[in-house]
């Protein structure tokens, strides 16, 4: 688990701003201003709080980052681990399609925290830990791709690692334009991503 998880139980805060709400609002500010460019004073000003009120909930700005990254990574790890575990019971190809679909659903459900995760560059121990967890997820996905290639379900003239990066690069790119209040339903979005990733844009042959 990430560093934020190890700090213990969620602190109860002042009315209207429990820790969960504070993290959610802080992530919005981090995504808009940039994490490194945002001070605790900036957060206090944006959220209409005093700095001491923020410290009542969390010990530091870094802890807020850790909680936010855990929010994204914990959810992604659950769906990818489940897809990997399912592969003995179903084909690796079907497990991979499931992993892509569920990853889209996580991205939509955790859009702000996933957006923040994808902007992490390893500038601190917390960010390095998050990047290591992302690498493990990438390795699991590449393993599913290799197994699907071995089954004969995917083309073998492109490396599994490249296939994995291209497919999940498409999933990650949703953070650049998807909006929860937009007109694209999550089920329709997940169907479209899976269809494009695995079936392509070509019309079926007559």
Question: Please, could you describe this protein's structure?
Answer:
Residues 39-58 bind DNA. Keywords: DNA-binding, Transcription, Transcription regulation. This is TetR/AcrR family transcriptional regulator. Residues 16-76 form the HTH tetR-type domain. GO terms for molecular function: DNA-binding transcription factor activity; transcription cis-regulatory region binding. This protein is mostly helical. The protein has 2 domains: 5-60, Arc Repressor Mutant, subunit A (Orthogonal Bundle); 63-199, Tetracycline Repressor, domain 2 (Orthogonal Bundle). The protein is 66% helix and 0% strand. The protein contains 9 helices and no strands. Helix 1 crosses helix 6 (111-118). The chain is elongated and about 60 Å long. The termini are far apart. Residues 1-15 have low confidence and may be disordered.
Radius of gyration over C-alpha positions, nearest whole angstrom: 19 Å
Number of separate strands: 0
One letter per element, helices H and strands E, the order comes to: HHHHHHHHH
Mean pLDDT: 89
Q: Could you name the CATH topology of the largest domain?
A: Tetracycline Repressor, domain 2
Global morphology: elongated
The major beta sheet can be summarized as:
none
- Name of the top-level CATH class of the largest domain: Mainly Alpha
Low-confidence stretches: 1-15
CATH homolog superfamily of the largest domain: Tetracycline Repressor, domain 2
Derived structural class = mainly alpha
The CATH architecture of the largest domain would be Orthogonal Bundle
**What proportion of the residues form beta strands (DSSP E)?**
under 5%
Domain tally: 2
Helical content (DSSP H or I, runs of 4+): 55-70%
- Distance between the ends: 51 Å
Number of helical regions: 9
């Amino acid at each position: 688990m990430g560093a934020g998880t190890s700090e213990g139980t969620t602190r109860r805060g002042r009315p209207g701003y429990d820790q969960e709400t504070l993290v959610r609002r802080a992530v919005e500010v981090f995504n808009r201003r940039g994490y490194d460019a945002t001070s605790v004073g900036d957060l206090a000003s944006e959220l209409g709080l005093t700095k001491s009120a923020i410290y009542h909930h969390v010990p530091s700005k870094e802890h807020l980052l850790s909680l936010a990254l855990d929010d994204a990574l914990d959810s992604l790890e659950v769906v990818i681990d489940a897809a990997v575990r399912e592969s003995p019971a179903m084909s690796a190809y079907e497990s991979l399609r499931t992993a892509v679909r569920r990853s889209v659903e996580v991205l939509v459900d955790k859009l702000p925290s996933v957006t923040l995760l994808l902007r992490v560059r390893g500038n601190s121990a917390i960010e390095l830990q998050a990047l290591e967890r992302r690498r493990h997820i990438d390795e699991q996905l590449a393993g599913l791709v290799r197994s699907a290639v071995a089954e004969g379900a995917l083309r073998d003239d492109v490396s599994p690692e490249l296939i994995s990066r291209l497919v999940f690069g498409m999933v990650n790119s949703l953070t650049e334009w998807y909006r929860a209040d937009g007109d694209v339903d999550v089920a329709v979005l997940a169907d479209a991503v899976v269809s494009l990733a695995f079936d392509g844009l070509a019309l079926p042959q007559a």
